[in-house]
Amino acid sequence: MYDYLVVGAGLYGAVFAQQAKEKGKSVLVIDKRSHIAGNVYTEEVEGINVHKYGAHIFHTNLKEVWEYVNRFIEFNRFTNSPVANYKGELYSLPFNMYTFNKMWGVVTPQEAQEKIAQQRKEAGITEPKNLEEQAISLVGTDIYEKLIKGYTQKQWGRPCNELPAFIIKRLPVRLTFDNNYFNALYQGIPIGGYTKWVENMLDGIEVRLNEDYLEKKSEYDAMAKTVVYTGPIDAYFDYKLGVLEYRSVRFDTEVLDIPNFQGNAAVNYTDSETPWTRIIEHKWFEFGTQPKTVISREYSSEWKLGDEPYYPVNNEKNTSLYQQYAKLAQKESNVIFGGRLGEYKYYDMDQVIASALEKCNQIL
Ligand code: FAD
């Protein structure tokens, strides 16, 4: 009899298991995948750590989370500064003075501000009715047309004038030459890859892979006093109230026999003709010097049950369905629901770690 059965060896499960073990509890971790680390999993290809489920950059303002993660691995100094490629024109992201200089030839912050104000005025939109009008009213026509329109359309699979305005609440405009994407105190990539990091967290803890909890639920329930479930909450209840929806991403990964394909970890394709949204060149997360390179083209795609769930669709329908499942979850005795799938919530890595640490503080 274990004190805890942790379902899912992703970050939530790994943090919970690590903390439980540290407090002297017995823990078994299972995962239905053939590997640990959940969606942050990296696998080595040609000596390069490839982010199998999408590019992951660790960033946080939470000092306690930063100190916690550094107990298990060292982080490098990687700073996320993506580049936008619009039909061969390259722009710095997030929108900053480099972007404005390239777009309009302006040199000072005041000139950039005037240009944006002038374009917003010309558009004359007072009450934006859709995402297109919202974006133009925030940053003007040029930035919308070249850097927002095509990318957003590909991400959502619909034209921007058919998307609701609320998706874009604000668009950060930096009047400095700072192209660090995240406004975070701490940022980096675990040296040696995310899998190594999670492996270090799970050191000394029993882990069983290729084990689907829901297929052997009663057998597993009998093995532990408490279950920590980090899989999809609707799957736990056999979808009896309906299926929670996600947006999915497809990755097309290629090894290239050249040392450098694009000179940056992330390049966003912001035109609407290029079918992929981004290309990730994995070696640059760790300043690789390998003779080959590995790239992944990312395609945003519709999701159906059975596909890998990536981004929860937090519209009214799904939010209300989740709340009904959450009520059922509260009635389950000796089961803790956690993580991005268990709580149907987009969590950054630091947030999922903070949430697991908080849960542990409450109960352990
Ligand atoms: P998961 O990692 O999904 O772990 C859940 C685990 O449970 C999985 O391994 C799954 O196989 C297992 N499981 C499910 N059902 C069962 C079952 N029935 N039986 C056994 N096992 C089961 N965050 C950042 O901070 N920075 C980023 O740059 C970033 N990039 C991202 C890019 C993408 C494309 C996406 C989708 C997310 C990104 N995130 C990023 C968020 C990050 O991926 C999550 O915060 C993190 O993975 C959540 O961990 P988790 O443990 O909740 O979920």
UniProtKB/TrEMBL annotation:
Q: Name one GO cellular component term.
A: cytosol
> Where does the signal sequence lie?
none
Keyword presence, Acetylation = no
Q: Which Pfam families match?
A: GLF (PF03275), NAD_binding_8 (PF13450)
Q: Which Gene3D superfamilies match?
A: NAD(P)-binding Rossmann-like Domain
Q: Which domain of life is it from?
A: Bacteria
UniProt keywords (A-Z) are:
FAD, Flavoprotein, Isomerase
One of the entry's Gene Ontology molecular-function terms is: UDP-galactopyranose mutase activity
Q: Which cofactor does it need?
A: FAD
Q: Which family does it belong to?
A: Belongs to the UDP-galactopyranose/dTDP-fucopyranose mutase family.
Name the chain's protein: UDP-galactopyranose mutase
Q: Which organism is it from?
A: Eubacterium oxidoreducens
